[in-house]
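As a point of orientation, let us examine one representative protein, giving the amino acid sequence and backbone structure tokens.
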Amino acid sequence: MMTGEQYRASLDDGRTTYFEGERVDDLLGHPILGPAANVVAAAYDRFYEPGAARNPMMEIPRSAQDLRDHIPLLHQADLVANTTYQSIMTLMTVAGRIGKQHPVYAERIQAFVERAQRDDIRIAECITDAKGDRGLPPGKQADPDSYTRVVERRDDGVVIRGAKLHISGASLAHELMTIPTKAMKEGEDDYAIACAVPANAPGVKVVNASYAPRHEDLRTFPISGTKHCPEGFVIFDDVFVPSERIFLDGEVEHAAVFAHSLGLWERLGGLAFMADEADELVGFAQLIAEANGLARTAHIREKISEMIIHATLVRATLEAAIANCDFGPDGAAYPDELYTNAGKYQGAANYNLMVRHLHDISGGSILTAPSIGDMENNEVGPLVRKYMAGADGVDGEYRMRLFHAIRDLTADAHGGWKLVTNIQAGGGLYAQRIVTRKHYDLEGAKRRALHTAGMA
């Protein structure tokens, strides 16, 4: 296992990364990327055990209980630890699904996963392509590089070119799991490429964006000020990939297997976080209602009750996805597709309503509450504390800090990031509808209806 300090040192490997137009040569010293790297390093230290064979977060689940036990571990960690686990499980799922037809790919996947576990590295998920004209398939784009593709095949590997978008933590990972974004058709062989690329490989360039606050005093940002992760625009500028790192090369019939497998684990991760997030939203709604003196008001109680029902149903689908898990040929457990996709859809589709209820309960001060610095000012501070006070006994600073947390979580840059990623992570709402319908027993439902009608 790696320590946090060893992880920090591992990032000094010559990788090419940019932030707001400038190349970043000192990643750890960067005011935005450096703190994000420290979040990852802190998770390394949190789980480090001298002499341990591997990080418990990266173990392959073999039962429903293993799946359940993994969730709190991942929630104690950072986003890149989560993408690493999801990457490992994606590859293991793929190996189980194509291993009989392509044992060489399954062997390469197994070797890569074992090395990742042994060396305690971090992996970013590179799936979404630039796509160009979204109405055209990869082979008909004006620019053939709109989808990541093989531009040269050699005896010892391939050269790839293209870009992958929305790659969380790409600049903080050691490896980039690069897979097709969708099903490929005959003639699109060059786009059916799956491989593992080192983050510092020649030709890899990462352009970063971040929702991290740009303020000197981060106390007004209690969530995003201490935990944020950059999003990478990953460019493969003619990158050579050795054969042993290639997991698919031209077999178009299997391209979708990678996307579907990642979608399953992305959606389970999203569902697990949404279950906790829903409880957080309920908690903030109740706390601010009490601080405002409105906890017993009928319409406030109705809104919080609706939020409670949402939170309960989201967690119920998570429990159902785990309890009804299935198993791959190697004994690895993976969540039930129906409950995972239905739950992820439900959580994401109703997130806006839950946030609307929270904002309605809270009031405008989630945007306009003064800062901690204002409260510490000798002249205005006592007045700020006096007029920010709420119900009897509720201190002004306490109420103000609640407003700051609600704003940071739901109504600022971090809140906007969550609003979009809750919908888009794991393929968007339409993808979850498709998979839910695919795995739902529609014929069984028809039989029940006919039986009820006395027609069968």
About this structure: The chain has a mean pLDDT of 95. The domain at 257-446 is CATH 1.20.140.10 (Butyryl-CoA Dehydrogenase, subunit A; domain 3). Residues 255-292 form the longest helix (38 residues). The longest strand covers residues 157-168.
